[in-house]
Amino acid sequence: MKIVLITGASRGIGAASARCLATQGYVVAINYKSNHQAAEEVKSDILAAGGKAALFQADISDEQQVVAMFNAIETRLGHVTHLVNNAGVLQTQMRVEEMNAERINRMLTQNVTPYFICAREAIKHMRDSSYPVTSCAMVNVSSAASYLGGANEYVDYAAAKGAIDSFTTGLSLELAAEGIRVNGVRPGCIYTDIHADGGEPNRVDRVAEFLPLKRGGTPAEVANAIAWLLSDEASYATGTFIDLAGGK
Ligand code: NAP
């Protein structure tokens, strides 16, 4: 049985991934931090379509809550065989010269450390699962900001995503001999609520005309790439990235 944990699956790219993977035979563990109603709607949609899903509330920036979440998944569903490290946050747009250490550290503790901790716990589950370990996989949701830089808006976020790219490369090499694949996706400007947290809810519409494809992306377009990288169809892909940034 394929059991996928998606962090931050109550909204945006995580929610689209949950809906997509549920149609492909995964039992979906939906993690969220605080928006219970939104998470419940994702679960209801999956169940209504004949899929299987359960909710797991946890703040993934808290190591103990991550460990407790994995234990709860094992008890209620079984061992995690696939992981989508997705939950992430933005902060108000500003230039580097305005940033203080508290803000920068928050970016790292919210966007980098949780990916390591969730991966660590998922690896234990994958090894303990009766599902073939060579079919276990994870996808890290990075960002095109990692190579574009986020200038004048959020270089701290871009740097955190750069760390996720390095993490993806390094972990893929650590796990390759076992056959556990680790890949990344790098979305560009996608229509989700995250831009409101950056102080500009309509950011995607503002920048769309400057993108080669002349439009923002949808969460489903990112979810499709995540689903492919997790699947056995991507069996010879590890340590690689799919850029979903409209040509940027
Ligand atoms: P979003 O719509 O703002 O959703 C964020 C999700 O993360 C929510 O489900 C939220 O849960 C959850 N979350 C945040 N902090 C959490 C924590 N500490 N513990 C558990 N869950 C937490 O974001 P999104 O745009 O879909 O972004 C998803 C990923 O894509 C992020 O890594 C982001 O950096 C990346 N990305 C997004 C874009 C874009 O343009 N949207 C572009 C590039 C990369 P609650 O609902 O409970 O708060």
TrEMBL record:
InterPro entries: KR_dom, NAD(P)-bd_dom_sf, Sc_DH/Rdtase_CS, SDR_fam. The keyword Acetylation does not apply. Keywords: Oxidoreductase. Residues 2-183 form the Ketoreductase domain. It comes from the Bacteria. The keyword Oxidoreductase applies. Belongs to the short-chain dehydrogenases/reductases (SDR) family. This is Ketoreductase domain-containing protein.
